């Protein structure tokens, strides 16, 4: 059953990520009167929706008994403060990571950013080996390198603006490079740390998501008022929200649940493969449906490498007898 859940959750993740990319792109380019919705508030609302959904799922597991739900929350969250506080670490790191990526994009050209940020595939594998004691075969390491190269080519900018290159100094490039490298390591560490917590305790994935969502909401609200406090004061928290915005927020909330399920039943490395496949799928849909992307030979080469990497990761030689292979 767990084997089936592994591939079901990976399939849902591909669908969710692809849908989120397309609807988010549409929501940010759709022209409408008035101010556009704030991404920072959408993140907070998504965290709250995730908490509400998990509460309903825990309520279901408690046989729809409100007293049993209260007891579970009391025992698993309030009476275990240290277990709950463990989730503050990945939540805080994810918040830091978002800020680091903002710094990176402000100081690097798009091509350098895209290439460097793909190192998160290797940092995730590194932390999986060191923290979870996973054994990766030579073929799996080769597949990770191939995946990194493929995603880099798929996302390679086709026409980088020359004026942007001229504005970036050597000093700012160094700052941007340090920021994106730090984001790669924080991404790998936070993901594997969360995986270790999920697989190392008997608490349900829904309880863990409630704990993660609580800290995510706190850190998210801090970001809302630090970066968008003035605009919220002028136009309100829900400025620019419409039906498409709520679809985006719902998909974001679903993403948090699906990623947790993938980490629980599969692992962070397979999550990276699923995300990479969704990048290709959303890009192809952009070409055929939105018609805002023209694929190049570099894109097709990257797509081929990602597909090869996906099959290579699961390849096991016939004479292999190692039972610990991931």
Order of helices and strands: HHHHHHHHHHHHHHH
> How would a textbook summarize the main sheet?
none
Rg over C-alpha atoms, rounded to the nearest angstrom:
21 Å
Determine the N-to-C terminus distance.
Answer: 18 Å
Number of strands: 0
The share of residues in helices is: over 70%
Give the helix/strand class.
mainly alpha
Number of helices: 15
The rough form would be described as globular
Q: What percent of residues are in strands?
A: under 5%
Q: Mean pLDDT score, rounded? A: 79
Low-confidence stretches: 320-326
Label this structure with key terms.
mainly alpha; 79% helix; 326 residues; disordered C terminus
In short:
79% of the residues lie in helices and 0% in strands. The protein has 15 helices and no strands.
Structure description:
This protein has 326 residues and is mostly helical. Helices cover 79% and strands 0% of the residues. The protein contains 15 helices and no strands. α2 (39-61) packs across α3 (66-78), α2 crosses α13 and α7 runs parallel beside α10.
């Amino acid at each position: 059953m767990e084997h089936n859940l592994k591939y079901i959750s990976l399939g849902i993740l591909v669908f969710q990520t692809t849908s989120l990319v397309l609807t988010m792109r549409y929501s940010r380019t759709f022209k409408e009167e008035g101010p556009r919705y704030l991404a920072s508030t959408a993140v907070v609302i998504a965290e709250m929706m995730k908490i509400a959904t998990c509460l309903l799922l825990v309520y279901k597991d408690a046989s729809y008994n409100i007293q049993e739900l209260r007891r579970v929350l009391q025992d698993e969250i309030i009476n275990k403060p240290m277990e709950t506080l463990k989730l503050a670490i990945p939540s805080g790191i994810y918040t830091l990571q978002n800020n680091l990526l903002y710094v990176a994009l402000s100081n690097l050209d798009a091509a350098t950013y895209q290439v460097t940020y793909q190192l998160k595939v290797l940092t995730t594998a590194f932390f999986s080996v060191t923290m979870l004691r996973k054994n990766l075969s030579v073929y799996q390491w080769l597949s990770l390198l191939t995946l990194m190269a493929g995603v880099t080519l798929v996302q390679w900018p086709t026409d980088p603006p020359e004026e942007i290159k001229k504005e970036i100094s050597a000093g700012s490039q160094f700052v941007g490079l340090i920021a994106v490298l730090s984001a790669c390591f924080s991404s790998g560490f936070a993901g594997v740390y969360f995986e270790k917590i999920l697989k190392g305790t008997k608490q349900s994935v829904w309880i863990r998501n409630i704990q993660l969502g609580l800290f995510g909401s706190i850190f998210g609200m801090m970001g809302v008022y630090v970066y968008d406090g003035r605009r919220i004061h002028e136009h309100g928290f829900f400025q620019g929200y419409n039906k498409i915005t709520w679809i985006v927020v719902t998909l974001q909330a679903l993403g948090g649940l699906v990623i947790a399920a993938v980490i629980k039943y599969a692992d962070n490395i397979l999550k990276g493969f699923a995300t990479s496949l969704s990048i290709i799928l959303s890009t192809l849909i952009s070409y055929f449906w939105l018609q805002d992307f023209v694929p190049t030979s570099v894109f097709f080469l990257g797509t081929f490498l990602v597909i090869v990497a996906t099959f290579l990761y699961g390849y096991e030689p016939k004479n292999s007898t190692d039972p610990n292979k991931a």
